[in-house]
Design brief:
5-stranded mixed beta sheet; about 100 residues; 4 helices
Length: about 100
């Protein structure tokens, strides 16, 4: 499990990443007294593509930090594959390497 506190738009948040098995992860975002829960599939190929040598959990944490800088937690899809982020935010692939 990966847990880390951060700051986004003056609102403290905690991102918790839990492995569910079979390349699936539960990501919980606690922020401002409310919570959102997301199920994300992260394949080994996606880890190698976006952040070689980094754990899927660390990549997911960085990915949610990236997303929270652009939209509220409620706008993040409840279930998606990691590469889906790049469809909404084309700069994701380029920027995520600098975050991990």
């Amino acid at each position: 499990m990966w847990r880390e506190r951060g700051e986004q738009a003056d609102m403290p948040h905690t991102i918790i990443v839990e492995a569910l098995g079979e390349s699936r992860y539960r990501v919980t975002v606690d922020e401002g007294g409310s919570r959102s829960v997301h199920e994300v599939t992260v394949t080994p190929d996606e880890v190698a593509r976006y952040a070689p040598g980094v754990s899927a959990e660390r990549l997911l944490h960085a990915s949610f930090t990236f997303l929270l800088a652009r939209e509220p937690k409620e706008a993040i899809l409840p279930r998606f594959t990691l590469s889906t982020i790049e469809r909404y935010f084309p700069e994701y692939g380029r920027e995520i390497r600098g975050r991990v």
